[in-house]
Each structure stands twice: as C-alpha cells, then as structure tokens.
Write the structure tokens for this entry.
Amino acid sequence: MGLSEIAAGLEVTSEQRDRGVATVGDPAAAAAVVEAYAEGADVGRAAAVAEVPPTTAAKALYLLGEPVDPLTPTARRVLADWLDGEIGLSEALTLANVGEGEFALGAYVATHEPIAAAESVVAEALSVEAEADPLDEARSGLGELV
C-alpha cells in the first residue's frame, strides 16, 4: 500500500493561518514596555505606549520575570493536552474557553522560561523603596494598648 492509497479520501477541513512571529526585537520598545508597566500601566497600555501588540508586551514582561499567564488551571491542563498532541487546536480553544491570543500567550509561557539574569535586574530596578511615614512617631505601639 502506497502513500497515495493511504491518503485517498482525506481532505483538509480547515486552513492554517500564518500569524507571523511576535517579538520585541527592538530594545527601545522593550524598555518602553517595562517603563510604562513600572509606572503603573497595565499590559495593554504599556503595549500601546511602546507601539507593540499586547501579546508581544506580555511576552517581553514574562521573559523579564513578570508572572504573566492568562490561563486558568483548567485551561493550562487543556493546553498541556494540546502540546502533547492529544487534542486539536479548535477543541483546545473550546475546552480552555479563551481566545486565540490568550491561548497563544499561555502556550508561550508553558514552553519558555524567563531570563534568569534579567529577572533580578528588573526586580531591582522596579523595586519601590518604602517612604518614611511622617506619622510614625505619632502612632502608639501595640504594647501601649495593653
């Protein structure tokens, strides 16, 4: 039995779409994402400031150590089944009950590790020093209540 005989009767029911590769190849764009995010912008707003797609901004933040994962535990199990080839993409999207963008970001998070060296540098840069409390001396201590 040849390949043509095996393939007889098979038909393609859906087409794969070329979505391109979402990356932050420009360090200035990545820096703009981090800066906007550090100033309190959400991922979508940080992406808009940096003029990159929101998924790209989320990927950059994830690689820098930010816990960005749009999937619920159930959706992560569905993603694992899809990554293992046990179910198809359309079934996985239905079972995970998320959009394609969220599913793609979840797949990225599941298949990539944050950059360890970048995590500590970004955490240090984004750390907020506690300001001195101007009313600290005016407050009574816990021992004074007893």
Notes: The first helix runs from residue 3 to 7. The mean pLDDT is 82. The chain is about 55% helix and 0% strand.
